[in-house]
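Appendix B. One record, verbatim.
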Amino acid sequence: MRQANAISAISRPLNQLTLTIVAIGLIAIVASAQAHNQATTVEASGRHIHFPDTDKYLTLAVDLHTHSVFSDGHVWPKIRVEEALRDGLDALAITEHLEYQPHRFDIPHPDRNTAYNEAREAAAKTDLIVIAGSEITRDPPAGHINAVFISDANAMLRVPNVPADAKDALAYYRAANIWPAQNVIEAANEQGAFVFWNHPYWTNQQPNGIARMNKFHAANAKNGKLHGIEIANGQNYSEGAHAIALEHDLTLIGVSDVHDLIDWDYPPHQGEHRPVTLVLAQARTAEAIKEALFAQRTVVWFRNLLIGRKDELNAILDASLQLESAQWRAETEVLQIVIRNHSDATFRLRNLTKHTFMHSGDHIDVAANDVTKITVKPGKKMASIELKFAVENALVAPKKPATLSFTVTPENS
């Protein structure tokens, strides 16, 4: 669900469902045709999300929060798989709402593992890793919580008195909410799940839109039953959630939370990208991704903003930005430096030294997947020069940019 009051969102009319289900077939046809006709051009178009591997780990692009028609999304799981392949993702989780089921009348599915099974089958002949997950959907203080790397979604749901009217999504939601949220958290942890708090700044949880820790989540974080928190979801980054993650030792998570077509919400032809979690993993496997999430080796990429703890973020920056050459201009004391960017992020650098630049002030943009030339005026020739920058779109804490240093050893022209 997009940001809204939980109950009012759940009670929205369902008369659009018939059109939605008809549209699913058309969407599948269009997506399949596009995949067939454009398979050789997707990666070349720059749509694939790419960040280089670090010295120690593989850098995997992962989206751990998406939806399909098996809760309140509007596409079949196969479409989610196709979108993930087109975006160059390494792993995907389709995390259906357990308790909120507005399509239950139109698409009966008593097995809550159905979306995962459909997606896994669709991805069987691809390199995409499909991760089993669910979204626990409750009123505050629990709010919405994702559990991924689960073994059985059905064990996380109890509805002893199922409403007779399958069209009444609100009645079903209320019946499912009778089972305490803490019991669901316990059930997820019994399966070894990685559990994270979703969009904690939503106004149905925080009327002023500022994420704050509450007793329910604080207790689970302290007891090792809450492991992460979304600091970026959809079109929003939350400084409050970022601060909570650092204070309570939670893994930083960024997700699309997509319900419609990914191209509608994050149009690639306009240069946009879905928010993802960059996971620094020892191998390209589900087990390695899970290990890295529990070890907090993540960096969030959101609207050209990278957010991570210092070690992980610095590892991404060091892998992304390479000093390619440094040479004095002929018969001058002006230094020409070329920096190559191996990543999809355009980095905004702010000079932290006394050196000045010939073609710019203290702010320099280093273009994504390209080379950028910087002309430095140190005042005289030197054997080596230290350049230090604040990376303004790379945050190690709210409002605190990462820093990047180069030791430049110039060649003579």
